[in-house]
Design goal:
The chain has 423 residues and is α+β, with helices and mostly antiparallel strands. It has one domain (3-421): Cytochrome p450 (Orthogonal Bundle), CATH 1.10.630.10. Helices cover 49% and strands 9% of the residues. The protein is built from 19 helices and 12 strands. The chain has helices at 17-21, 23-31, 50-58, 66-71, 84-87, 98-106, 112-117, 119-131, 141-158, 165-180, 190-214, 220-225, 238-251, 254-269, 271-279, 284-294, 325-328, 364-381, 414-421; strands at 36-39, 44-47, 63-64, 138-140, 300-304, 308-310, 313-315, 320-323, 386-387, 395-396, 403-404, 408-410. A 5-stranded mixed β-sheet has the order 1-2-8-5-3. Strands 4-12-9 form a 3-stranded antiparallel β-sheet. The protein is globular and about 55 Å long. Keywords: Heme, Iron, Metal-binding, Monooxygenase, Oxidoreductase. This is Cytochrome P450. It comes from Arthrobacter methylotrophus. InterPro entries: Cyt_P450, Cyt_P450_B, Cyt_P450_CS, Cyt_P450_sf. Belongs to the cytochrome P450 family.
Length: 423
């Protein structure tokens, strides 16, 4: 280990139970001693202090996202469908000017007024989903409600038929695996399986894009396909639009679903917060924001473009920097009682869960509307719902994206009948 790779934490383990149970606490156990440390498993520097994370996120010239796209290696047998230069154009793995252009096109579908207008639609959809299992008394809420709600909303937003839903659900998982492969290489045969499904999904989505070019509608894909330059040419190619739809299949579904599940866990552990939100529905947006502050659903990585010192560590040009957003959001230098779940805190929206700078999450208006609405309807219908006492640590085994698969919950079945009578 060279001096440039020190300090190293010998206790931090992003693949261990403590991390999956509570990433913020796992970071806190090393943050005070080593604000920035090297993590050999990912061959990356872990940055834990909020000020340092904000510095990295705000300076794309010193800390590039573009190397992420370049670091995702497309298997040779699929490069005729997904060329290396195409995957390098993913939004989370590109820098200006390409990123700016793509973001300006994609962002038209996620503007706040449009997302706010979806609120009654999301609420009605949430009721329909709950109707399907409310009388059962227990379920895996992650699949039955959180992912079901976000997936149905995305399918409607993209104007995709029900027949495409299984493919899009699988694409969601494959997209995350491909993004993580920039630092966590996939082994065979999983690598070929993931890329094979991804290439097939991209081919399907390109066909949809071409259909929307000929017959545009009021949907995300039509919105992106309809943007033209001064000469009347498409700003983004059908292939690039399909790549971005693939990104959204995960970013617009799983991250919000994870946040809703985490909120249920926090509310189970903090009944006074649940009581307050049920008494005052205006507090549900605060429940959602405090949840993602305490446990963000995403993460961020950058590549250093020059030598720099962060948290006392000497980071060299070309090194990977992994930003511990869960740590930044619980930095005691910025937050009073940082590990408390406090929906009344004055700075409830002051966090990095949606990143910062040029890569601020495009979908945060949708996430905030859908997360708050989904939680409100859930507890209006099933006020006694609580997470089971022994919630399993059932996560996809990826350090960069700890994706929860199950959340067992239970409730008094008499809730369902009483609540439905009031609707």
């Amino acid at each position: 280990m060279t001096a440039a790779r020190c300090p190293v934490s010998h206790t931090f383990d992003a693949m261990g139970d403590d991390y999956f149970r509570d990433p913020a606490l796992a970071f806190a156990n090393v943050r005070d001693e080593m604000p920035t440390f090297f993590y050999p498993y990912l061959n990356a520097w872990v940055v834990t202090a909020k000020a340092d994370c904000e510095y990295v996120l705000s300076d794309w010239k010193k800390f590039s996202s573009g190397d992420k796209g370049a670091s995702i290696e497309v298997p040779e047998q699929f490069q005729h469908i997904v060329p290396q230069e195409l995957i390098a154009k993913i939004l989370v793995g590109s820098d200006p000017t390409g990123h700016t252009l793509s973001r300006s096109v994609a962002g038209r579908a996620f503007v706040k007024p449009r997302m706010d207008a979806l609120q009654p639609v999301i609420e009605e959809r949430a009721h329909r989903i709950l109707d399907s299992f409310a009388a059962e008394g227990s379920t895996n809420l992650m699949e039955a409600y959180c992912l079901e709600l976000t997936t149905q909303t995305f399918m409607a937003l993209a104007g995709l038929d029900h027949e495409a839903e299984p493919m899009m659900r699988q694409l969601r998982d494959d997209q995350f695996a491909i993004l993580a492969s920039a630092l966590e290489p996939m082994e065979e045969p999983r690598r070929s399986e993931v890329w094979g499904r991804y290439a097939a999904a991209q081919t399907y989505l390109r066909g949809i894009v071409h259909e929307r070019i000929e017959n545009p509608g009021d949907d995300l894909i039509s919105e992106m396909a309809g943007v033209r330059d001064r000469e009347g040419a498409m700003v983004l190619s059908p292939e690039q639009i399909a790549v971005h739809v693939g990104e959204f299949s995960g970013a617009a579904t799983d991250t919000t679903a994870q946040a809703m599940a985490n909120a249920v866990l926090f509310l189970t552990a903090n009944p006074e917060a649940l009581e307050a939100a049920m008494a005052d529905p205006q507090l549900w947006p605060r429940v959602f924001d405090e949840t993602v502050r305490r446990r963000p659903s995403g993460t961020a990585t950058r590549w250093a473009k020059e030598d720099v010192i962060l948290g006392g560590a000497e980071i060299k040009k070309g090194d990977v920097v992994w930003l511990g957003l869960a740590s930044a959001n619980t930095d005691a230098s910025y937050y009073e009682r940082p590990f408390d779940f406090d929906i009344h805190r004055a700075d409830v929206g002051d966090h990095l869960a949606f990143s910062k700078g040029r890569h601020t999450c495009l979908g945060q208006p949708l996430a905030r509307v859908q997360g708050a609405t989904g939680l409100k309807v859930l507890f209006e219908r099933l006020p006694s719902l609580r997470a089971d006492a022994d919630t399993p640590l059932d996560f996809v085994q990826m350090a960069l994206l700890p994706i929860r698969r199950t959340l067992p919950v239970h409730w008094d079945v008499t809730d369902a009948a009483r609540a439905r009578e009031l609707i």
